[in-house]
Amino acid sequence: MNNSTSFFVVLGLLDAGRKSGYDIKRIIENEIGHYYKISNGQIYPALKSILGMSYASLSVEKTDGKPDRKVYLITEKGSAAFREWLKKPVDYHNPGGNELLLKLYFGPQASVDDSIRLITTFREIKAKSLNTYDDIHSSFGLSPQSSLPDHYSYLTLRYGQILAQANLQWCDEAIERIKELEGKQ
Amino acid sequence: MNNSTSFFVVLGLLDAGRKSGYDIKRIIENEIGHYYKISNGQIYPALKSILGMSYASLSVEKTDGKPDRKVYLITEKGSAAFREWLKKPVDYHNPGGNELLLKLYFGPQASVDDSIRLITTFREIKAKSLNTYDDIHSSFGLSPQSSLPDHYSYLTLRYGQILAQANLQWCDEAIERIKELEGKQ
DNA sequence: TACTACATGTAAACGGTTACATGATTGC
DNA sequence: GCAATCATGTAACCGTTTACATGTAGTA
User: Fold this and answer.
1) Which of A114, B53, B104, B175 has the greatest number of C-beta atoms within 10 Å?
2) For A29-81, what is each residue's pLDDT tens digit?
3) DSSP code for B70
């Protein structure tokens, strides 16, 4: 839990400013819902554990009728832990491969160099996997009489190849864009 | 368990021919390891449950020294259950989106029509999501003075867009290829 | 001597999802 | 009257990962 993606997403949103659990849920749904989902069963235990680790302090705001708003304020310790996570290269084995997008969403809370480093590391891994796909591809020698399994395996290979290429394309575009951005700041 | 991906992968490999748990592990590692991982903690419980549901029968082969090989032979009931799973459109929310590749790997155990249907359904979903990305993209109006968060959100949007395009490209190529294949059979 | 391949399995932990509980307010 | 929004949370379940246990045979 205190080491999982959901934990750090919650922590990262607190790092961007004081929020309640409900705020966190809404923000995730509206801003990163395309590639990341979260449930109450993750948010509220995460907040509890964030408090327990002194990564945030709590202030309760009274409301009329509705339950009290429990607003969390990140501590320096919490902020440091988040920034450490943010710098760590993404786990390239993670299903969906969207941990990178998540970290990039937190880009404004990191340095430009760190964001670029994140993408270049990701790029290297994708380039390597594209190489292996290319190697297999060139050794495939699909003849018209080759077996059915071959043809279907070829399709899955092509998927890996095409997707890896698309990833590389995005990496290059993204790095260029961030560098441009840096020049204007 | 008896409804999970790992369960049906194991069942599908048995559908392709009698195998032991160890065989299954080796085959997954060698043939689909690029996009699907499995552990003993999934294979052996799956086999137990496959036996329990009468989806397979068991024959034990004596070996010299090594533990007995427990070889599983799929039943008609098991085969029917597998084919039903194979036809079901993939869960497009699944992380990694590789359930399709998995099902395509089992293409030789399905009809050409079913394989094509699998891909066209997938294509429709990707086309729809590309449309939403395009809509957001055109409403983005990134001005040079726009805030940092905007620029980073733009990158995640572009990722979705580029990857969706790559998926469509692959779908078209794959469908064409399968249709060609059909002509020659 | 040590590692790899063969071959079976289990137990605990982990991360996440689903579904529920409670309850006021606002708008159709 | 009903749905949606605001706002908190919990409990059970599910699928997967990690790490372990056991043991032989062949190879470097």
Assistant:
1) B104
2) 999 999 999 999 999 999 999 999 999 999 999 877 778 899 999 999 999 99
3) E
Q: Which nucleotide is nearest to A42 (CA to C1')?
A: C16
Number of residues assigned to chain B: 185
Report d(CA A115, CA A175) in Å as an integer. 9
Residue B59, exposed/middle/buried by CB under 10 A (0-12, 13-18, 19+)?
Answer: exposed
Q: Give the closest residue to A73 by CA, choosing from A8, A147, A13.
A: A13
Calpha distance B97→B172 (Å, rounded)? 17
Between the CA of residue A167 and those of A125, A126, B162, B166, what are the distances in Å? 10, 7, 8, 9
Amino acid whose CA is nearest the C1' of C10: B41
Q: Are A11 and A50 in contact (CB under 8 A)?
A: yes
Looking up tokens 């760590």, which residue turns up? Answer: A88
Angle formed at CA B104 by CA A124 and CA B88, multiple of 5 degrees: 120
Interatomic distance A5 CA / C12 C1' (Å): 21
| C-alpha span between B108 and A115 (Å, rounded) | 44
Encode A7-22: b = buried (16+ Cβ within 10 Å), e = exposed.
bbbbbbbbbeeebbbe
- Entry pTM: 0.95
Those nucleotides of strand D lying less than 7 Å from any protein Cβ are 6-12, 14-25
Phi and psi angles of residue A19, each rounded to the nearest 5 degrees, phi first: -150, 160
